[in-house]
Design goal:
By secondary structure, the chain is mainly β. Helices cover 3% and strands 40% of the residues. The protein has 2 domains: 141 residues, no CATH class; 176 residues, no CATH class. The strands form 6 sheets. Strands 11-13-23-15-16-21 form a 6-stranded mixed β-sheet, with no helix packed on it. Strands 1-10-3-8-5 form a 5-stranded antiparallel β-sheet. Strand 15 and strand 16 form a beta hairpin. The longest helix is centred in the C-terminal third of the chain and has 5 residues. The chain is globular and about 70 Å long. The mean pLDDT is 88.
Length: 326
Amino acid sequence: MEYSAQELKGAGTLNKSILEAGSDYTFFLYRPKNITGQSPSLSGSGYFTFETKRDANGFYNSTIIPYVKGAVFNPGIANSVNTASFGVKSLVTSSYIFSYDLFEITGSNVTATSSFEYSPSITAPVGSVFFRATGDYEMEVSPETQDCGAVQTFQGGQNYPTQLQSILGSSTGTSVTISVRTGTTIPDRWIATLGGTQVLDTGYICPSNNAGFGQPGRNGVLGFTTALQGRLIPEGPITFNGIAYSTYPVGGAGGLGGSTTTGVSPNIIEPDGYPRVVTFTPDGPNPITDNTTFTFSKNTVASTLNISVYGPQTYTFWTNNVACPV
C-alpha cells in the first residue's frame, strides 16, 4: 500500500490496509530529490511516527486497543545509532506509538531510502492507526493486507513483485476465486500461496497476444523482455544445456536459439529465453474492463493467502480481487 508525502504530512493519515497479527510488514520510506522547489530547505533527517488513533477527547483510555504492544521491530529498540542496512535509528516506542529517526542526509539534491520491519501482535484494522512523516518522504507498506472481497489495484509503475495478502478465515473444504485484470497489452503474473503451499501460478497473462513471442510488443515499445532482463526467475533456476539459469534470459544473451522452448506450463520459456505470454479470454466481452477468474480449493485452516504480482514493465496496471471462500 502506497502513501504520498502529502498524506503523511501534518496530522498524517490513517492506515489504508490491515496490519494482521503475526504477519511481517516492511515499511519503505523514500525521499526523492527536491526537483519541484516546493521544499527548498529539504535536508537533514526525517521522522516517521506510527500512532494508535486516540479517543474523541484526544486520550488513550481503557477502550483504546494498544496496537503497538508486543510488536517485534527490526532494527529493534536497542539500535540507537544509524543502521546502514535500514537507514533508521533511535526507535521510541510505547504500547500505542513508535517512531524512527530516518536516514540523515545533507542536501536537497540527494535521494534517501529508509526501511524497517514490523510484526504486530494485535491486528490493526483499516483506519485504526495514524502514519506521519516529516521530510517529504513517501511510503510503501508491504505486503498490502485486505479482507477477502476487497479489490486491490496497482497502477503507475513496474514492481517485481507487489506483495498482497487476503484474509480468508480458517474454514476448509471451500472454494476460493481470484479475479484479475491486466493492462490490454502489458502482461503480469500472479503467484499465490496458502499455508506455505502454492495454490496458483498464472504465468504471464494479458488479454492481447501483442506481447507474445514474435509479436511487436514483446521487445518493442512495451519492452517485455527488456524489463525482465537480469531479473530473478520466480519459480527458481531453469536448466538448459546443463547450465542452471536463475535470471532471465534463460540460455544467456543468445537465448535458446531456433524454435527451441523449455520450462513447464504456465511458464514456458520461448526461444529468446524469456517467458511465454498467454492470451486469456476475460469473463465478459470487454478486455479493458472485464476480469478473468482462477479458482482453487481451500483445504487448510491457514487463513492468509499470500500473493505476489509480478509486473516488470513500466505503466503496468492490474486489479486483484480475492472472493471470500464459499
